[in-house]
Amino acid sequence: MSNLDTFAVIGAGSWGTALALLTARQERKVLLWDHSAKHIESLQKQRCNIRYLPDIVLPENVIPTGDLSSVLDQTKKIIIAVPSNAFRGTLLKLRENISAESEYRVCWGTKGLEASSGDLMSEVFDNVIGQSIHKAIISGPSFAHEVAAGLPTAMTVTSDKPTEAVSFAAWFRNDRVRIYTSEDLIGIQIGGAVKNVMAIAAGVSDGLGFGANARAALITRGLAEMTRFGIALGAQAQTFNGLTGVGDLVLTCTDDSSRNRRLGIGIGQGKSLQDLLNEIGQETEGLHSARAIHNKSRSINIEMPITEQVYRVLFDDLDPLTAVQTLLSREAVSENA
Prior knowledge:
Blueprint: E1 6-10, H1 14-24, E2 29-33, H2 37-46, E3 48-49, E4 53-57, E5 62-65, H3 68-74, E6 77-80, H4 84-95, E7 105-108, H5 121-128, E8 134-139, H6 144-148, E9 153-159, H7 162-169, E10 177-182, H8 185-207, H9 211-232, H10 243-254, H11 259-268, H12 273-280, H13 285-299, H14 305-315, H15 320-328
């Protein structure tokens, strides 16, 4: 095993474990790190992620560890898979062990905007780590349990340099996983953040019993919001017609494996937000993104009516039925407006 190319995956939740398994399938040594010593101990003992992916056995070339400095001594290829609210803190830990002038290469699968600042994850990365280290993002319609199980999946890798995107894409590509590349660093991040808010909206609609017609309308108008918001921030319009836009949006809004959709369904059924979060037991990125996107869209004067209603339901205790009625009673405009 010592002769294998070595990678590090930072964050051993469901997505981090799935990315570790994906990367390890190409005969690589993968060091899987997590901040929780108890979780690492369980991974080492059970050889599977009991909490998130209990039916997937870790191969011997996936090595759980709690020693971050040792991990970063062994490899300069880093994959980050932590929730958006832990992204800055994780980068601060990395910064203690790496320098801005080093040859580290970092790719992350974190989706969302930073709730406190409204910054994209790439902006947080540049602020904490600096702009000299090569960085990339992997995103697209991909549930962790399906990637972990080796089911067919297509995703996109983006970097601020086209040649770097191609290089990073090779980290994840195999005969079951097709990886496309993109130069739209902004658009891919916007798609990954907004789709979770729309999944909550679609879930609320289904929880209220409004049916497939309403869900389809929300997905379509949600795509319009996503595109409008993204273009205003410098994204390319065509990105939202791809995997990280409409692809991820449809997946997250229509399949009950989506935590954000399940959160919305529960809200539509009248359950309390805290009870739902306890029941789901994992991060629901749409909760953080709704606040960040709502605030950012208002600051740049971009109209996002679905996002606004989701925000009000989550944080202003607006009745979900009232929120839907507000959307339906909006003044009629051209579909392309």
